[in-house]
Amino acid sequence: MTQKIFLTGASGNMGSMGLKELLKEKNNTIVVLVLPTEKDREVMKIYENNPRVEIHWGDLTNYDDVKACVKGVDIVLHVGAFVSPAADYHPDMAMKVNYGSTVNIIKAIKEQPNKDNIKLVYIGTIAETGDRMPPIQWGRVGDPLKPSVHDYYAVSKIAAEREVIESGLKYWVSLRQTGILSKRMSEIEDSIMFHNCLDNVLEYVTDKDSGVLLGNICKNTPDDFWCHVYNIGGGASCRVSCYDMFKEMFGRIGITNLDYALEGNWFATRNFHGQYYLDSDKLNDYLNFRSGDIEYFYKFYLENLGSTATLAKVLTKIPGGQKLMGLFMRKRFFKLAMGERGTMNFITNKRTDFSDPFFISEEKWKEIPKISEMEHFKDWDKVIRIEHGYDESKAESQLTLEDVKGAAKFRGGECLSSPMTKGDMKSKLTFKCSFGHEFEASPRLILEGGHWCPQCESESWNYHEIAKVNPFFAQVWYPLHDKNEPSRVYKKVVSQIDVKL
Predict the structure, then answer these.
(1) pLDDT tens across 86-133, in order?
(2) Is the pTM of this model over 0.85?
(3) What DSSP letter does each residue of 269-306 carry, written as one string?
(4) Which of 154, 248, 396, 493 could join 147 via S-S bond, C-beta 3.0 to 4.6 A?
(5) How far is residue 359's CA from residue 205's CA, in Å, rounded to a whole number?
């Protein structure tokens, strides 16, 4: 079957691997929209003379560029995004690119004469559900959305996902991507590494498997796959805590005591993102993309260190060598921790609006011990299942207005609509949140997506107050926060409302 596919983000991490996979099918023609930068032109150079790759030099935030690429396609793989850590420094750009590009794509699809035949694959992010530190480290689709404070990448992707789910398109899917194990990941040197908490976990996936996923989604995917939200995860072989990853990375170059190279209080104690998935097998059952494991990353890590790894392996065998090598690496890491978005920069310069979300307070930060003195979480297999506020044993076709009303009440609000057709997950109903904001949303968005009030989401991070009145959200807040903590509100500097289309 001949297919024309529009792939965004073709020069990026997941997109470049996807392009390679798509080209393995000889009947595929791939349209790509790439920024005309020197770096992107270099990446795409190998495809310039490929008759099955149609390169458009342009911008996803330019509607005319997007519309030209959507014309005549069968499927859109929207992988492209302005990601962290760059998004941390440029929140306006993150919202413009991530939200604006998605709105442009949906609009362009709707203007096509064959709009009901065009499939949209949207790549979301694990960052949408935010901080899921132990003991709530296991999660699934439908859990509360909780973008970490100041994480505008997550905020922009949540806004974009809402547009996808409520688009009215006949064929759409949102795939929440996890951390991607890749050569590029091994090369990242940014303050964001210390936003990741030592007892945080991620169920990673390799870039290679992510590419296979994109290739397989274009092959006879059954109808019941579409119009749902899924978590992308590599399975058990890709699950690891931050502490265990660092222990393994340093151990491979001979440093067995992390105290030589790192301080425990450089690492945040909350407010990042990551979880193990209860439901990631579901996507693999459809797309059969998994093959890699965490070892895939360690190989790139050692390759990236190059001669430093070779030197370290020799030096650390000599008495005092571990400490000497650790001191060398400590200087490099401390510089990152003191960077513009570094945890130690926040603490040193009394930037409490940034340090408090990560540490609760300076007093709590001072209590953090050395890594070797920490009692690290070990009961990783214990599952505390987040309740969704309705009878999930029911088939979707049997869900009624009473189920939706119950879910709304569990969120501290109410569903104001009546009636609802049994099993209708896509028609919008009217809701009111606990703060009195009225909004329209489909049962799909609320029950499966975990979304709630768009006004609360766009105005601020107000989690302590939300948890007081929203039992659904309280499940992912109070296990990590004391009810007596000071209530802090962090206004958002940008939201989807600010994007001019």
Answers:
(1) 999 999 999 999 999 999 999 999 999 999 999 999 999 999 999 999
(2) yes
(3) SSSS-B-EESSHHHHHHHH------THHHHHHHHHHHT
(4) 154
(5) 28
